[in-house]
Write a structure and sequence with these properties.
Blueprint (H helix, E strand, L loop, with lengths): L1 H28 L2 H11 L3 H8 L3 H22 L8 H22 L1
Helix pairs in contact: 1-2, 1-4, 4-5
């Protein structure tokens, strides 16, 4: 089962980091080519693939949602657009991480 997480967790992080990069690029250039690529990447069925092979759907869905958000937001911060975040958005990021840790502790007992 470890191989399952070793494959899809980095894949989801890479996918949503690339999606954030495309989103930032489209906001700067506004070209139709970037829009088409952004649209095609956005319809990739990542969650159904993860869901098909999942043994613990609750934990995997929470992990997927958190990875999706953190990868997208983290990439935007690294690309320099994170300075637009307000303090409550940063607090939300901390709460997501803390909630994920607490959920993992609770499900492991």
């Amino acid at each position: 089962m470890v191989w399952f997480y070793a494959i899809w967790v980095p894949a989801i992080i890479a996918f949503y980091s690339f999606y954030a990069y495309l989103s930032k690029t489209y906001n700067e250039t506004r070209t139709w080519k970037t829009f088409v690529v952004l649209l095609l990447v956005g319809v990739c069925p990542c969650w159904p693939i993860v869901c098909r092979f999942s043994k613990n759907l609750l934990f995997d869905s929470v992990l997927y949602d958190n990875l999706m958000f953190l990868a997208f937001a983290g990439t935007l911060v690294l690309l320099g657009t994170g300075y637009h975040f307000r303090y409550w958005q940063w607090i939300g990021l901390v709460l997501i991480v803390a909630g994920s840790i607490c959920l993992r502790i609770q499900t492991s007992n």
